[in-house]
Amino acid sequence: MLPSDMVGGVSATRAANLEASGEALGKFVGQVDEVLSALEGSAGNPAKVGAQTIRATSLTSGGEGEFPEAHGLYKQYTRVHHELTTLSKTLHLQIEAIGIAVTGARRGFENLEEEQRQRFWAIQTEIGKLQSKKDDRQHASGSQTGAEL
Questions:
Q1: Region entry Disordered: which residue ranges (predicted)?
Q2: pTM, rounded to two decimals
Q3: Which segments of 34-121 are extended strands (E)?
Q4: Residue 100: exposed, middle, or buried by beta-carbon count in 10 A (0-12, 13-18, 19+)?
Q5: Which residue among 44, 71, 123, 144 is least enclosed by CB atoms within 10 Å?
């Protein structure tokens, strides 16, 4: 049994400290929206990051045995580029989800438009897939040491 001053597992004092005013949440939503807009207009936009690719032939026209260092550089560039693209996309999605979550916290999730609720859950699903792919790649390359990467 919870003590009489506990509400939902949190003391009444702490619960009062956790309450956020509608004004504070509104301000935070505005800040999240600004960050998201800035990201969309920056070089960190997932589409812009994804467009920055090179071809293996940009470094050498020979086979891998002819200039192995160039092929190694290309492989590392491709790996890092993929990681940065995934990171940028995940960041973009998480900022968008935070904006929806804060709006839901302010108005109540049941008062969000159905489109916003669906978008929130679609973002969560997409982030889960991106994370799962990353975990799969890490497990597949788990035998590599830091020197090999």
A1: 130-149
A2: 0.63
A3: none
A4: buried
A5: 144
How many angstroms separate the first and last alpha carbons of the chain? 53
Nearest to 100 by CA among 110, 109, 87, 89: 109
What gap in Å lies between CA 29 and CA 102, rounded to an integer?
Answer: 6
The single-letter DSSP state of residue 9 is: T
Tokens standing for residue 82: 């993929």
C-alpha separations of 83 from 22, 48, 77, 104, 133 in Å: 37, 14, 10, 31, 11
Are 90 and 128 in contact, with CB atoms under 8 Å apart?
A: no
Q: Give the helix/strand (H/E) hosting 10.
A: strand 10-11
CB 144 within 8 A of CB 79: no
Residues 71 and 62: beta-carbon distance below 8 Å: no
pLDDT digits (tens, 9 = 90+) for 16-62: 555 566 677 678 778 888 888 888 888 878 888 888 888 888 877 76
Specify whether the CB–CB gap between 90 and 127 falls below 8 A: yes
Residue-wise burial string across 88-98, b where 16 or more C-beta atoms lie within 10 A, e elsewhere? bbbebbebbbb
